[in-house]
Design goal:
mainly alpha
């Protein structure tokens, strides 16, 4: 028995005995349809690497678009690749691509929160500095434009 088949048998038997204690271990499956659906779903959930080892095609990418294969080979799979990876029987890689996408989203949220916090702190510093200024300092700090002067004259004096 070659080492890959031996690894498949050992890992499958170990997983099955742990997942379904007391149940007889079935014949080593060659395709997903060799097992009940609940068993396949449990395997994909609990040990996706085992499901990939048992059910992935010989090259694992026979049914995938070329760009998905290229990103997979480079280790750069994106969340949108997950459906193609799953169809090719690469459940562990599909889950890894989705996890990578979630980490990117989480990092974007952290960055956005940091930028928002920095903007808030700058606004608070500006407000505090403004409040510390006297009236004359405020007028000198932000002189009125000619449009503002004309609007104030019209509003308060009825003049143009």
């Amino acid at each position: 028995m070659d080492s890959i088949v031996q690894e498949k048998v050992t890992r499958f038997c170990t997983w099955y005995a742990k997942a379904f204690p007391g149940a007889p271990v079935p014949v080593l499956p060659k395709k997903e349809s060799d097992l009940p659906l609940t068993t396949v779903l449990a395997m994909k959930s609990e040990d996706p690497a085992l499901a990939q080892l048992l059910f992935a095609g010989a090259n694992g990418h026979s049914a995938m678009p070329a760009d998905v294969v290229m990103r997979r080979n480079q280790g750069q799979s994106i969340p949108q690749d997950a459906q193609h990876l799953r169809r090719a029987g690469l459940e562990a890689e599909a889950q890894a691509a989705e996890a990578r996408g979630q980490r990117l989203i989480d990092q974007q949220l952290v960055d956005q929160a940091r930028q928002s916090r920095e903007g808030y702190e700058q606004a608070m510093q500006k407000t505090a500095a403004w409040q510390d200024m006297g009236l004359l300092a405020r007028l000198g700090h932000q002189p009125l434009t000619s449009e503002q002067i004309a609007e104030n004259r019209r509003r308060y004096h009825g003049k143009n």
